[in-house]
């Protein structure tokens, strides 16, 4: 499981955008988003670099924790 601190998440649209971009690349990924702590936890076959790039593609800055 990878844990990212993500800048700029504020609402349900943010959660959907991040979840959708990850699930498009790995349909079996488990994505948990916590807006209060600005954290995204991902259990995926993709590595941290790939996941960070996907979160960036969705428009958010991701920092591996």
TrEMBL record:
Residues 1-63 form the HMA domain. GO terms for molecular function: metal ion binding. It comes from the Bacteria. Coiled coil: none annotated. Keywords: Metal-binding. The keyword Hydrolase does not apply. The keyword Metal-binding applies. Pfam families: HMA. This is Copper chaperone.
